[in-house]
Amino acid sequence: MRRICGYVPQDVSADGDLTSYENVLISAKLYGMPPKERKQRIQEVLNFLELTDRENDMVNTFFGRHDAASGNRPGAGQPAESAFSR
User: Fold this and answer.
1) CA-to-CA distance for 53 and 3, rounded, in angstroms?
2) Angle at which helices 35-48 and 20-30 pack, to 10 degrees?
3) Cβ(43)–Cβ(51) under 8 Å?
4) Do residues 54 and 16 touch, judged by C-beta distance below 8 A?
5) Are 30 and 42 in contact (CB under 8 A)?
6) Is 71 a member of any domain?
């Protein structure tokens, strides 16, 4: 889809109405990661972000609005593409 429509987000952000796993899954799909690699790489990303114990929790339960908006969270400043490129 990203290649077809040229999707380029202005800011890397998380959808608060999805779980942390679902948010990372969307990024993996947008970056064209093959389905066979996704599960392992998603677990690596969640581990890097120290969110393995919260992979099934809705993201909107993680932070107060100020923290999420200001980037005061694990992995802030880490470009999404670096999580999925080798």
Assistant:
1) 33
2) 130
3) no
4) no
5) no
6) yes
Taking only the tens place, the pLDDT of each residue in 22-52 is 989 988 998 889 999 999 999 999 999 888 9
| Domain boundaries, position 38 | 2-75
86 in any annotated domain:
no
Pick from 86, 55, 71, 82: nearest CA to 13? 71
Which among 29, 37, 47, 13 has a CA at the least distance from the CA of 86? Answer: 37
Instruction: In whole angstroms, give the CA distance from residue 43 to residue 48.
Output: 9
In a domain, 82, yes or no: no
User: In the numeric block, which tokens belong to residue 43?
Assistant: 């677990």
pTM tops 0.90, yes or no: no
